[in-house]
Specification:
One of its GO terms (molecular function) is DNA binding. By secondary structure, the protein is α+β, with helices and mostly antiparallel strands. Among the domains are: about 120 residues, DNA double-strand break repair and VJ recombination XRCC4, N-terminal (Dna Repair Protein Xrcc4, Chain: A, domain 1), CATH 2.170.210.10; about 80 residues. It has 6 helices and 7 strands. Strand 6 and strand 7 form a beta hairpin. It starts with a strand and ends with a helix.
Length: about 325
């Protein structure tokens, strides 16, 4: 059971207060409700059924949900509102007669009737007034307890807020300290890296200079070697070998022998001129030294020498026979 008590003022008696108690079941007034009206001396009771609520909504051509919302605002709102007004007939009411309570809604200076209920006089109004006072006191106590709980909750939240604020300040200070420390470490590490990079660059520069110097020395040595090789090759080409000197001496001896001989011989020396080994002329080649320098084959040289000695002996025999 839900209960609401509020103060109302009649439109014909604005300076006089009435107290209206409404009891209902469920989530709203759509399933019916009970009313108790009192001025502190007299009291009246009445009831509105669910069928009456539906009928009044149909008469006003309003949706039931909208009608129930307006009805609940008019009868159960704790604070008086200028949007709703009440009338009581007959006026002034008596304790022995039935009265009709009408509730209307004001909208743009136009009022229309939300509903009305017949209230019967209570035989013992003091008891009804006592019920209203008890409910009002209970509601006041509940509101006071709720207010106390809200104050405690508010105090707890304020304390938590203060603790959170202090923690945030502490965290902010810690973050600033940590930032400063990290920045100093970063600067120190950066300087170390820069120093290391500079030393590495200097080492690389020195190594590059050493390498270039070594390469230049190697190039100079290679150039000197090539120059010395060319000079030795020129000396070798320009000079004559011992074998060539021997061949020249043998050729000169054979030539003088042929001049001394005046008698014809069956063995003509002209026929062996082609057989005798002649000194081969060496020519300088423009190609590499390896291709220009070619030594005689020892076996071929020995064959020529043997043939030369045979011819020489034959010539001597011919001269002796003559």
């Amino acid at each position: 059971m839900n209960t609401s008590v509020r103060e109302i003022h009649l439109s014909s008696q604005a300076d006089f207060s009435y107290f209206l108690r409404v009891d209902w079941e469920g989530r709203g007034l759509g399933f019916g409700f009970k009313l108790l009206l009192t001025d502190g001396h007299k009291a009246w009771r009445g009831k509105v059924s669910e069928a009456v609520v539906n009928e009044e909504a149909e008469e006003l051509e309003m949706a039931k949900e909208k009608y129930i919302q307006d009805l609940q605002e008019a009868l159960t709102e704790p604070e008086p509102s200028a949007s709703y007004c009440f009338t009581l007939k007959p006026h002034p009411p008596t304790s022995s007669r039935t009265v009709t309570l009408t509730y209307e809604k004001m909208q743009k200076d136009i009022s229309f009737k939300l509903g009305s209920v017949s209230l019967d006089a209570v035989k013992e109004p003091a008891e009804a007034v006592r019920e209203v006072l008890i409910h009002t006191l209970q509601q006041g106590n509940e509101l006071q307890q709720h207010n106390h709980k809200l104050k405690e909750e508010n105090q707890r939240l304020m304390q938590e807020h203060q603790n959170i604020t202090e923690n945030l300040k502490h965290y902010a200070e810690s973050i600033e300290t940590l930032k400063a420390e990290l920045y100093s470490r970063f600067v120190l590490l950066l300087n170390e890296k820069k120093t290391k990079i500079r030393s590495l660059q200097e080492s690389v520069t020195k190594l590059q200079e050493t390498r270039n110097s070594d390469e230049q020395k190697n190039k100079d040595c290679a150039k000197l070697d090539r120059t010395a090789g060319h000079n030795s090759e020129d000396d070798e080409y320009e000079g004559s070998t011992d074998e060539e000197l021997k061949e020249e001496q043998s050729a000169e001896t054979s030539h003088s022998s042929s001049k001394d001989s005046a008698t014809p011989s069956p063995l003509n020396l002209r026929d062996i001129t082609d057989v005798a080994p002649c000194r081969k002329r060496r020519f300088r080649h423009l190609g590499p030294p390896e291709l220009a320098v070619k030594k005689q084959n020892p076996e071929k040289k020995n064959g020529y020498e043997c043939m030369f000695h045979v011819v020489l002996n034959a010539a001597r025999l011919c001269l002796c026979s003559c």
